[in-house]
Amino acid sequence: MNPAPLPSGTTRRRVELRLRKPWFAWGARPTVTVDGVGNPAQWGTGTWALPDGRAVEFGVYGINRGWRFGAASVRVEAAAAGAGAVLEYRAGLLPFGRGTLVVAPR
Predict the structure, then answer these.
(1) C-alpha to C-alpha distances, 75 to 40, 58, 68, nearest whole angstrom
(2) What average pLDDT is seen over the chain?
(3) CA 76, CA 55: separation in Å to the nearest integer?
């Protein structure tokens, strides 16, 4: 029998995510993926809980009425997330192509 999962907010692995809104984002919203599972987000700064004990693939892309742009991803190691990593996302300069997602200095 597996133990019940911990309630939300009890994880010690959180990362800060800074989503910079591009100039062309009229009505576009960001989507954050953790190991391929998409979650709606908002532009600005927020924190995300990550699964304990393993590295995860963290990704971000913008979407506007089915039009997807600025996809970027980075692998976040367990040690970095435990130390309170800060991730910073920027879409490309134009409304097509890739964006950048980097682990920023704290």
Answers:
(1) 19, 6, 21
(2) 82
(3) 6
